[in-house]
């Protein structure tokens, strides 16, 4: 077992942890790159994401008929091909809100987090902006061409067909991220190195700017 640098494990009283928010469509490589990033960082980071929480949801509340939970809605995309959106019902919204509250509690307790999630609707993004207000957040987006996402999806038996296309919507502007990566053009280990370097971006970071713009928009109503 490799030697552990105890100095990076020592808790600092009242010091909140950092959060890496990693978003992008299904099959964009978030889980794989999150693990590589975890290995590349000198400080310990926990990796968790929306799948961690959705996996705890009863099976009857996930699927094409799960109107109260997480419902798969199949549509026809303008560019052709399967297009599946995930629509949350009342229970699904409560799960996401509880997940975001749990992430904040962990960060406030001093734990560093790499959070992977598909943020394909404005309500979820606004939830993160509210929940992580005042937390040190680095915001990354992973993506790939549609044909690459489709092929990756076909190779994953656990994925509903068309989910990659249905979750590719970017609800934030391009400048809302500290870094955007095309995962078809970079190996996971190299992507992790680039993300780790981008984490040293000086403040205000992209998430802070996005939060400020959102607050201004609300005040202007």
3D architecture notes:
The chain is of the alpha/beta class. The chain has a domain at 13-49 and 112-219: P-loop containing nucleotide triphosphate hydrolases (Rossmann fold). Helices cover 38% and strands 20% of the residues. The protein contains 8 helices and 8 strands. It has helices at residues 30-40, 50-54, 90-108, 122-131, 146-154, 163-166, 188-198, 206-219; strands spanning 18-23, 45-49, 62-63, 70-76, 82-88, 112-117, 136-143, 179-182. The strands form 2 sheets. It has a 5-stranded parallel β-sheet with strand order 2-6-1-7-8, with helices on both faces. A 3-stranded mixed β-sheet has the order 3-4-5. It is globular, with a radius of gyration of 18 Å. Mean pLDDT is 87; it is low at 6-11.
Mean pLDDT: 87
Low-confidence stretches: 6-11
CATH architecture classification name of one domain: 3-Layer(aba) Sandwich
CA gyration radius, whole angstroms = 18 Å
β-strand number: 8
The major β-sheet equals: 5 strands, parallel
The helix/strand order is EHEHEEEHEHEHHEHH
Principal-axis shape: globular
Q: What's the CATH topology label of one domain?
A: Rossmann fold
Strand order, biggest sheet? Answer: 2-6-1-7-8
Q: Give the percentage of residues in beta strands.
A: 15-25%
CATH superfamily of one domain: P-loop containing nucleotide triphosphate hydrolases
Q: Considering DSSP H and I runs of 4 or more, what fraction of the residues is helical?
A: 25-40%
Class computed from helices, strands and strand pairing: alpha/beta
């Amino acid at each position: 077992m490799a030697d552990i640098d105890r100095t990076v494990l020592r808790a600092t009283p009242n010091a909140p942890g950092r959060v890496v928010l990693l978003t992008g469509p299904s099959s964009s490589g978030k889980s794989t790159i999150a693990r590589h990033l975890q290995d590349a960082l000198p400080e310990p980071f926990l990796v968790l994401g929306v799948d961690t929480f959705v996996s705890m949801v009863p099976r009857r509340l996930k699927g094409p008929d799960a109107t109260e939970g997480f419902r798969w809605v199949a549509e026809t995309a303008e560019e052709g091909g399967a297009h599946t959106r995930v629509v949350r019902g009342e229970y699904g919204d409560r799960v996401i809100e509880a997940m975001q509250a749990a992430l904040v509690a962990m960060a406030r307790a001093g734990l560093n987090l790499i959070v992977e999630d598909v943020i394909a609707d404005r309500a979820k993004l606004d939830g993160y902006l509210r929940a992580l207000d005042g937390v040190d957040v680095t915001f990354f987006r992973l993506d790939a061409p549609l044909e690459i996402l489709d092929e990756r999806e076909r190779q994953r038996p656990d994925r509903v067909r068309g989910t990659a296309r249905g979750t590719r919507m970017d609800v934030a502007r391009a400048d809302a991220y500290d870094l955007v990566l095309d995962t078809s053009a970079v190996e996971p280990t190299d992507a992790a190195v680039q993300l780790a370097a981008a984490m040293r971006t000086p403040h205000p970071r992209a998430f802070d700017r996005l939060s400020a713009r959102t607050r201004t928009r609300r005040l202007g109503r």
